[in-house]
Design a protein that fits this description.
Elements (H helix, E strand, L loop, with lengths): L1 H25 L2 H29 L7 H22 L6 H16 L17 H29 L7 H37 L7 H22 L4 H25 L8
Helix pairs in contact: 1-2, 1-4, 2-3, 3-4, 3-5, 4-5, 5-6, 5-8, 6-7, 7-8
């Protein structure tokens, strides 16, 4: 039953992405509305799956690569819904809907069996460390989506788009700031947890190194932003190019550089 719910949510995200692309390409309001309702239905099923898996496992479902990817996709979808409903940022859908679908598709390729927590994960820091990482990556992904929309819209050069461009630029900044704060929490709680589990605050594990690289990259973005000497288009490119680094830290490290975090 859980698998049916999972793949139903994945299918609805895919359909919503197609409808959104069609609505934007052909400027059909009906397609855009349909895409939004289908996406909400997919998110509802996604949430049901998230909760049901947690209940069945008897823990927060964040213990392995499948569960983290599933939660990562959920975080992107949740942030999209918040911005779409509260800030009327309909323009974000065309980039964020496919992002949710692609991340959940990656999750679908991972083993979905529910397993017991590894001894290293049985800690009070479990939810704080992994939960903050999940929302941090989600915020960075949304920042990248907003940056991509900025780059596409700014090519048109219409004065009527200026207000929307400012909204996209500011949303990228806010999401990077949020993601940076949460990634800082992730690194600090991870250091405390590592000291308790392995008697060392820092072990130069590949996941730790790439989390630090990601942190430095976004620290550079915030520095450039606060200096106010870098153009918005350059900053948009920055957040778009930074997303592959986040994705590599999330998935590539586990695949290519196995280490102490290979279970996550």
């Amino acid at each position: 039953m859980l698998n049916i719910i999972f793949f139903a949510a994945l299918s609805l995200y895919f359909i919503a992405s197609l409808l959104e692309f069609g609505g934007v390409s052909f400027k059909k309001e009906k397609l855009l509305r349909a895409a939004w309702y289908v996406f909400l239905a997919g998110f509802a099923l996604h949430s049901v799956y998230f909760i049901a898996r947690g209940v069945k496992a008897g823990r927060v479902p964040l213990a392995n690569q499948f569960e983290f990817a599933m939660a990562f996709a959920w975080g992107v979808a949740a942030l999209l819904i918040v911005f779409r409903t509260r800030l009327k940022a309909e323009w974000l859908c065309v980039a964020a809907m496919p992002m949710s679908f692609l991340i959940l598709s990656y999750a679908a390729l991972q083993p979905r069996e529910i397993t017991e927590l590894m001894p290293a994960l049985k800690s009070t820091w479990f939810v704080f460390h992994i939960g903050s990482a999940m929302f941090s990556y989600s915020a960075f992904a949304i920042a990248g989506c907003a940056g991509l929309r900025y780059l596409l819209l700014s090519r048109k050069g219409k004065e009527t788009d200026e207000l929307r461009l400012q909204q996209m630029d500011f949303m990228s900044y806010r999401m990077v700031a949020l993601g940076f704060l949460l990634l800082t929490v992730t690194i600090l709680t991870g250091a405390i947890w590592a000291e308790q589990a392995w008697s060392a605050f820092w072990t130069w594990d590949p996941k730790e190194v790439w989390a630090l690289i990601t942190w430095i990259i976004y620290a550079v973005y915030l520095h450039l932003r606060l200096r106010k000497k870098t153009g918005a288009r350059t900053l948009a490119w920055f957040v778009v190019i930074a997303v592959p680094v986040v994705l590599f830290t999330f998935a590539g490290v586990n695949t290519l550089m196995p280490g102490l975090h290979s279970y996550g």
